């Protein structure tokens, strides 16, 4: 059996040097934004719910040089000899194809938001966030771009948590409107607002201020003798093939039929009732479609699992924290139906090999799992999963060990 590949993060000096080398020596600076792992709270962001992400030490670096025109040229270390080009003048939503839609879309979104001083630029990207892994390499790209453009154009939003909401909105618009990949905002908030040693309790209720929407939650696994294994199954991961949008539309339709603005309102009502199980059953009975009922059941119970996980972790009840991981995955598999065989097998093997709990993370339909494991056990458990994948004829997975890291920042 082949030994599993563990992906190590770049340090900022190396990431900056590689990005500058790809662009040229006249870059105005280098910025970096992290990928993320969502600990729990999946497919809740676009329902006004709760999420609990951490930023990864794995980052995307952008070296950027602005110029006074409207042309944009971007290149990536994935294909360093194939630059992509666009023009911001007259650009409309969906007007850029391929990966360049993400960074160009950020500039377009800022201009659409009234910041006409954002001009054309040349940029080079270097990343150690694995592509297609469900760890939000796209948000790492859009958020690093947003921070760079904010800096070089003097917009002044990057220096405060409240200001970063404007940059987050531009990153979201780039993904949704230019790249056509639906996102609810979890990834961009994590990339722009997480702090080292903490998860953020992200409240996606519409209209909240920065202070109201994020609470920094200490997340120190080492103190409990644990570590977080992240395993990229390398199953194809696509969120713009209609499946994500279909789940979102189902939730919005269900909320409308229940006479509420979003499913968070139902989740709060269920949690506040004397008999939450009965309150949820009564609400589901008002929906006449079984698939829609299962989608709603996942969202409502998953929102509840976020605070339950925070409480269990604060008490040091790691067994309960792991059980909540397991319940989350089972709900995503059975009610939301966003897992694939590779995700389910990886979770099953991790549990069998001693993980306290394991679940898929991200949008699903491919991507990664996370597992709470004893310190020092990540490589052994990841190898066991890789061996099982080989027996089943799946692609070889890759893995990393995740620590709660800092958000997007200028590095050079």
TrEMBL record:
<keyword id="KW-0418">Kinase</keyword>
<dbReference type="Pfam" id="PF08544">
    <property type="entry name" value="GHMP_kinases_C"/>
</dbReference>
<keyword id="KW-0547">Nucleotide-binding</keyword>
<dbReference type="Pfam" id="PF00288">
    <property type="entry name" value="GHMP_kinases_N"/>
</dbReference>
<keyword id="KW-0479">Metal-binding</keyword>
<keyword id="KW-0067">ATP-binding</keyword>
<protein>
    <recommendedName>
        <fullName>Galactokinase</fullName>
        <ecNumber>2.7.1.6</ecNumber>
    </recommendedName>
</protein>
<dbReference type="GO" id="GO:0005524">
    <property type="term" value="F:ATP binding"/>
</dbReference>
<dbReference type="InterPro" id="IPR019539">
    <property type="entry name" value="GalKase_N"/>
</dbReference>
<dbReference type="InterPro" id="IPR000705">
    <property type="entry name" value="Galactokinase"/>
</dbReference>
<dbReference type="InterPro" id="IPR036554">
    <property type="entry name" value="GHMP_kinase_C_sf"/>
</dbReference>
<dbReference type="InterPro" id="IPR013750">
    <property type="entry name" value="GHMP_kinase_C_dom"/>
</dbReference>
<feature type="domain" description="Galactokinase N-terminal">
    <location>
        <begin position="24"/>
        <end position="66"/>
    </location>
</feature>
<dbReference type="GO" id="GO:0005829">
    <property type="term" value="C:cytosol"/>
</dbReference>
<feature type="domain" description="GHMP kinase C-terminal">
    <location>
        <begin position="310"/>
        <end position="389"/>
    </location>
</feature>
<dbReference type="InterPro" id="IPR006204">
    <property type="entry name" value="GHMP_kinase_N_dom"/>
</dbReference>
<dbReference type="InterPro" id="IPR020568">
    <property type="entry name" value="Ribosomal_Su5_D2-typ_SF"/>
</dbReference>
<dbReference type="GO" id="GO:0004335">
    <property type="term" value="F:galactokinase activity"/>
</dbReference>
<keyword id="KW-0299">Galactose metabolism</keyword>
<comment type="similarity">
    <text>Belongs to the GHMP kinase family. GalK subfamily.</text>
</comment>
<dbReference type="InterPro" id="IPR006203">
    <property type="entry name" value="GHMP_knse_ATP-bd_CS"/>
</dbReference>
<dbReference type="InterPro" id="IPR014721">
    <property type="entry name" value="Ribsml_uS5_D2-typ_fold_subgr"/>
</dbReference>
<keyword id="KW-0808">Transferase</keyword>
<feature type="domain" description="GHMP kinase N-terminal">
    <location>
        <begin position="102"/>
        <end position="192"/>
    </location>
</feature>
<dbReference type="InterPro" id="IPR019741">
    <property type="entry name" value="Galactokinase_CS"/>
</dbReference>
<dbReference type="InterPro" id="IPR006206">
    <property type="entry name" value="Mevalonate/galactokinase"/>
</dbReference>
<dbReference type="GO" id="GO:0006012">
    <property type="term" value="P:galactose metabolic process"/>
</dbReference>
<keyword id="KW-0119">Carbohydrate metabolism</keyword>
<dbReference type="Pfam" id="PF10509">
    <property type="entry name" value="GalKase_gal_bdg"/>
</dbReference>
<dbReference type="GO" id="GO:0046872">
    <property type="term" value="F:metal ion binding"/>
</dbReference>
<keyword id="KW-0460">Magnesium</keyword>
């Amino acid at each position: 059996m082949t030994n599993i590949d563990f992906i190590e993060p770049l340090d900022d000096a190396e990431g900056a040097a590689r990005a500058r080398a790809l662009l040229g020596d006249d870059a105005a600076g280098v910025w970096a934004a992290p990928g993320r792992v969502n600990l729990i709270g999946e497919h809740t962001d676009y329902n006004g719910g709760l999420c609990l992400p951490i930023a990864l030490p794995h980052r995307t670096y952008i070296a950027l040089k602005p110029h006074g025109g409207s042309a944009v040229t971007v290149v990536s270390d994935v294909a360093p000899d194939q630059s992509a080009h666009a023009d911001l003048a007259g650009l409309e939503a969906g007007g850029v194809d391929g990966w360049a839609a993400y960074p160009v879309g950020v500039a377009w979104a800022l201009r659409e938001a009234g910041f006409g001083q954002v001009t054309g630029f040349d940029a080079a990207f270097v990343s150690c966030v694995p592509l297609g892994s469900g760890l939000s390499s796209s948000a790492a790209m859009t958020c690093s771009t947003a921070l760079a453009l904010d800096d070089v154009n003097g917009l002044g939003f990057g220096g405060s948590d409240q200001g970063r909401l404007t940059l987050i909105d531009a990153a979201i618009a780039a993904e949704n409107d230019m790249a056509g990949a639906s996102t609810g905002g979890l990834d961009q908030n994590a990339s722009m607002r997480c702090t080292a040693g903490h998860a953020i309790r992200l409240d996606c209720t519409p209209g909240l201020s920065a202070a109201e929407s994020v609470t920094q939650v200490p997340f120190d696994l080492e103190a409990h003798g644990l570590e977080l294994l992240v395993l990229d199954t390398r199953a194809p991961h696509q969120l713009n093939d209609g499946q994500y949008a279909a789940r979102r539309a189902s939730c919005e339709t269900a909320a409308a039929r229940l006479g509420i603005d979003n499913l968070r309102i139902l989740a709060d009502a269920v949690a506040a009732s004397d008999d939450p199980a009965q309150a949820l059953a009564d609400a589901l009975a008002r929906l006449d479609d079984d698939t829609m009922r299962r989608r709603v059941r996942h969202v409502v119970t998953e929102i509840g699992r976020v605070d339950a996980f925070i409480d269990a972790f604060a008490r040091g009840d790691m067994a309960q924290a792991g059980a909540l991981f397991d319940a989350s995955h089972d709900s995503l598999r059975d009610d939301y139906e966003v897992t694939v065989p590779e995700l389910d097998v990886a979770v099953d093997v991790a549990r069998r090999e001693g993980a306290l709990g394991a679940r898929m993370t991200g949008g699903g339909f491919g991507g990664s799992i996370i597992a709470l494991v004893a310190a020092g056990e990540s490589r052994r458990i990841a190898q066991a999963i890789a061996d099982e994948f080989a027996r089943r004829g799946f692609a070889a997975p890759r893995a990393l060990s995740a620590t709660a890291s800092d958000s997007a920042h200028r590095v050079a």
